[in-house]
Write a structure and sequence with these properties.
The chain is 14% helix and 31% strand. It has 250 residues and is α/β, with parallel strands linked by helices.
């Protein structure tokens, strides 16, 4: 008999393999580097290592969150649901063979597997394009994934109407352009956001930053290690190396 679990394997950046009571969900796929965009840490899983997926969820259209080129060799493209925040992303995915690609707006919900529900949560915008976060409900607990979210206030609005999360996955490197606002949370915001969500555990994502031409235009302001240091006794921060599977102690 398969043991019911919530498990996390960090692949790279905000690309994570979530196991939700026996159903696998891939977030923010990124499998192929570009000469102008490097990972900054080892790739944790290859496409061939992935189990059958109940869904792929994407937070925003940046290449290191939406590597459509890297998904070309994924099996079962025609039957795997792909949820994205813009109509253009959905059209490109369908053209590549992902026939169940769908744009989801803030507040929409889907049942992605028996016993596993999903709600799309507002996560701000990058310029004019919306960013999605995703809250998953399972019989074992609630999981919140925000791969590209910058403001704790967005989580406060979510919690005013929705149940607490047990496990949060939030960005920690505080990426920002040399001139401009912060694009994602830093470690202090991630810890505060986890508290707002009511989470007992935080897995930091969006941590490493590669050395490439694009990186010269951006600055970071923290790491997962900083989140570990800042967390209080009521929050477990699991600084998860890429490729290592961790079971949430629900």
């Amino acid at each position: 008999m398969i043991k019911p679990t919530i498990a996390v394997t960090r692949v790279i950046n905000s690309c994570v393999l979530l196991e939700l009571d026996g159903h696998a969900v891939l977030t923010d796929p990124w499998f192929t580097e570009r000469w102008w965009l490097r990972r900054g840490e080892p790739l944790g899983l290859e496409i061939r290592d992935l189990p059958p997926l109940a869904a792929i969820v994407v937070t925003n259209l940046a290449t290191n969150h939406w590597d459509l080129r890297g998904l070309r060799t994924l099996p079962a493209k025609d039957t795997t649901p792909v949820y994205v925040p813009t109509s253009g992303m959905a059209r490109r995915a369908r053209a590549l063979g992902f026939l169940r690609a769908e744009r989801l707006r803030w507040g929409q919900t889907r049942d992605i597997a028996p016993g596993v529900s999903m709600r799309v949560v507002p996560a701000g915008r990058t310029l004019v394009w919306p960013n999605n976060a995703y809250a998953f409900g399972t019989p074992l607990g609630q999981v919140f994934f925000g791969g590209e979210i910058a403001e704790v206030a967005l989580l406060k609005r979510y919690r005013a109407e929705q149940p607490p999360a047990d496990l949060a996955l939030l960005p920690v490197n505080g990426l920002r352009p040399v001139f401009g606002p912060r694009l994602v949370m830093g470690p202090r915001q991630a810890v505060a956001g986890s508290s707002v969500l009511g989470a007992r555990a935080l897995v930091p994502v969006h941590d490493a930053h590669g050395h490439d031409p694009l990186s010269r235009l951006f600055r970071t302001s923290g790491t997962a290690s900083d989140a570990v240091r800042l967390a209080g006794p009521d929050l477990l921060v699991r600084d998860l190396p890429t490729g290592e599977r961790w079971e949430f102690p629900y």
